[in-house]
Amino acid sequence: MSNFNESSYDCVNDFPLHWVRGNQLGILLSVVASVLTQQAWVLVIPLAVQLISRWAGIRYNIFVRIFSPIFPKSSRTESRELLRFNNLLAILMLAVALIAWLLQATVLMYTSLIILSTAVVAALFGFCMGCFMYFQWKQFKARRRT
Fold it and tell me: Where are the transmembrane segments (predicted)?
């Protein structure tokens, strides 16, 4: 495992890209495991990780701790604001999938998982759908003010 000390997680506005990629990989592997095993309860794991990370901070994100060492250390960063927005989208998609599973709405469950997986795979390849959506939202709000 990489050397994660407390000071490396202190209140920063940007996070190294390898931490972001580690979280994304954890989400993707959880979704794939859930689909392959046909066990939707597995989705509770990434949902819990994302909720804890949102509430307590990235130092408690187990996906970052486990998977970020796989990626080369990066000097490129992602902003806290964009990460929080993307984190919220992931939480919403995972929650929709779990609620759909509980309601036996299989099509809705798989639709939300496809949306989430597509966004994560695109992000791993360098295109952030959540960032694009966030930019469009900010543009919409700015146009409404004028």
Answer: 25-49, 82-103, 109-135
Give per-residue pLDDT as tens, 34-59: 999 999 999 999 999 999 999 998 88
- What is the per-residue burial (b if ≥16 Cβ within 10 Å, else e) of 88-120? ebbbebbebbbebbeeeeeeebbebbebbbebb
The DSSP code for 146 is -
Close Cβ partners of 87 (under 8 Å, ≥ 6 residues apart) = 50, 53, 54
For residues 145 and 47, give the distance between their C-alpha atoms in angstroms, rounded to a whole number. Answer: 35
pTM flag (> 0.70): yes
**Are residues 94 and 108 in contact, defined by beta-carbon separation less than 8 angstroms?**
no
How far is 15 from 78, CA to CA, in rounded Å?
5
| Residue in the structure block whose two tokens are 């408690």 | 60
Residue 101 · residue 47 · CB < 8 Å: no
Neighbours of 57 (CB within 10 A): 12
Give dist(CA 26, CA 45) in Å, integer: 10
Query: Distance between CA atoms of 95 and 115, rounded to whole angstroms?
Result: 13
Report how far residue 87's alpha carbon sits from residue 96's, in angstroms, rounded to the nearest whole number: 14
The residue type at 47: L
